[in-house]
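The instructor's notes for this session suggest beginning with a concrete chain rather than abstract definitions. Hand out the sequence below and ask the class to guess, before any prediction is shown, which regions might be ordered.
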Amino acid sequence: MPRYILDEKDTRTVFDLEKAEIVVGRAADSDIAVLDLRASRHHCRIERHDQQFLLVDLGSQNGTRLNGHLVERVALKSGDRVDVGSATVWFEEAPPPDEAPGSDTMVSSAEALGLEPDADHLRRLQRVTMALNGEIHLDPLLRIIIDHLVEISGAERGFLVLSQGKDRPLVRVARNFEQEDVRDADAGFSASIVERVFKTGSPIVTANAVEDVRFQDNLSINAIRARSVMCLPFRQRGETVGAAYLDNRLQMGVFGGDERDTLMSLVDLAAAAIDRARLYDENERRALELEELNQRLEQRVDTQDRELIEVKDRLRSAGQPEGVYTKIIGESKAMKEVLRLLDKIVKTEEPVLITGESGTGKELIARAIHAHGPRATKPFHSENCAALTDTLLESELFGHVKGAFTGADRDRKGLFELADQGTLFLDEVADMSPDMQKKLLRVLQEGEVRPVGGKRVLRVDVRIISASNKRLDRLVRAGEFREDLFYRLRVLTVDLPPLRVRKEDVPRLVSHFMALYAKPGIPIKELDAGVVDMLQAYDWPGNVRELENEVKRMVALSDETVTVEILSDHVRRGARGLADLDEEGPVQNLIDLVEQVERREIEKALRVSKNNKTRAADQLGISRFTLQRKLEKYGMS
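After discussion, reveal the predicted structure:
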C-alpha cells in the first residue's frame, strides 16, 4: 500500500491510500486536501498502473512541481517530492520533519514568494498564454485573467476594471480565491486607487493600505479595511485601458515588488488578449446586425416585388371595362355567379376553399379576395403544396432555425410568420401528405407555429385561402384527406367553372392576352377570320392557362395578322372533332367511340403537359395510376 506524506504549515499528515487514482488539490472532495490558495481546486492526480505510479497535472494554473521542476505527466519513484503551491506531498518516504520544506534548506526565498527559476517562470507564462489564447470571447476571457492573477499573487479577491470611453470605468468581473463571483463588486474595492492607476499608468502596491499615508483620506479604504493591495494597469498602445485590483483584507505584506514585476508580464499578455476579444465580439455583433439588416432587406424586396406585380397587373388591365374585379375577365353567366359570390366573401375574414380544374385561375381569385378584403393592406403570400417535399414544405410554411437541418445556415421566417395579419394562399392543398395535414391542422386550431428545429412558439393571425383541382369531399370519403382539416378549410367555397362551359368568355380572354403580350410600341396584331371561332370551338382541357399559352404562341409566330394556320395542330383538330359528333348521323358503337375520345383526350393532355403524366392525369380528372392503365390498354405507353 503506497504512503503519501503531506507537509504544510509546519504540520505533517500521513495518508495510506489504496485507490488507483489519488487527487490532490484545494477542493474539499480531494483525497489529499491542501490549504494554500496557490493550489487549484483539483491540482494534480497520482495514478497507479500495475507497479508503476504516474504524476499527472490537471491543468492547474500554477503548475505541479516534481523535485523542483514543473511537470505535466511523469513517473514517480519512492522519495519523490511533489510541490502543490507551498504544500509538499512526499511519495512513500519522507525526510525527517525538521528537513521538510519550510526550512531554508528545502525552499529558497524566491520559491517562498511564489517565484520560480527562469525555466519554470517561462513555462508558467506559457501555460497562462495558452489559457488566454484558448478563449476568444471577452466575458469568459476576463474571468480567466482575474482567476490567474488571484491564484499567482495569493490574493483574496480580484477586480478587473475596464475603460468605457468617455464614461466612468466599469467593473467587468470580480472573483475571489474560490473562483466565485464577488457580490456588490462596485462597492468592494477602492475606486480612488484604481483612478490613480488610470491617471498615472503606474502600478500601486501597499503592504497595509489602512495605514498607508497615501490613502489616509480615502474613505473607501477604511470601509473595506483592506490590508495588502496591488493595482496593476492594462496598457495598450501607450494608453491605460484597464486595471487589475487585487487585495487581501486579512494579511499584510502579501504582495512584494518581485510579484508585481511577474504579474505585470501576465497583465501585458492579458491586455493584448482583451483587445483581440473585444474586436472579435464587436465583429460578431456587427455580423448579427448585418444578418438582421439583410433579412429586413429581403422582406422589403419581397414586398416591393409584390407591389411591382400588382402595378404591372393594373397597367396590363388598362383599357378593360370598369368593374369591381378588373383583373377577372368574364361576362358569362357562370363567371357572373362567381363574381356575385365574391362580393359577399371579400367582406369576411373566414377561410375560403377554391375548387376547379387546373388553369381556371384559382390564384387570381385568391388575390382578388385578399385585395378587396379587410386585410388588403397586409401581406399576401402563396405556396404550391404539390411542388415541395414534406421537409421543404414544413420549412417554407413554418420557418426554421439555424442548424435545424443540412443547409440551414441561418434562421428563416416561414410564410405563416411573414403573412401575419394578412393572407396565405395554399394551392393544391389536396397533395399534402397526412403528416403535413396534421401539422397544418394544429396551426389552424391553435394559431401558433413553431419553426423547424426551434423551441420558440409564435402566435400568428393569418387568413387561409386554399385551392384544389381535386374534389376534397371525395378524398375525405376515400380516407385520403383529413375530415377535420377539410371542414377547417371549407368555411366558404368558390367553385370555378372550366373554360369549356363559359366559351363566350374566350373572345374577351383572347383580346386581353393579345394586348398583354404585344411588343411595346407595336400595334396589337389582328385575328384572321375563323381564328376566334376555332379557338371558341376547342374544349381547352388546360383552361385559361392553356388559352394564354396558345395566344403567346400566336403572337410569337405570326406576322401582322394571326391566321388559322398559326394555331396548334391539336387546337385545330379538337375544334373540328366536334363536328364529327353529328346528332343526325348514324349511331356509333359506344365502346369504339369511348376509346376514340379517350385516346384523343389522353394525347391532348400529354401534349399540353409536355408528357408529364402527373399533370396530364390532373387535367383529365383521373389518378396517375388510372392514366397508366389506359396507356397500357391502348398501347400508348
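Then share the key points. The two ends are 87 Å apart (CA to CA). The chain has 20 helices and 27 strands.
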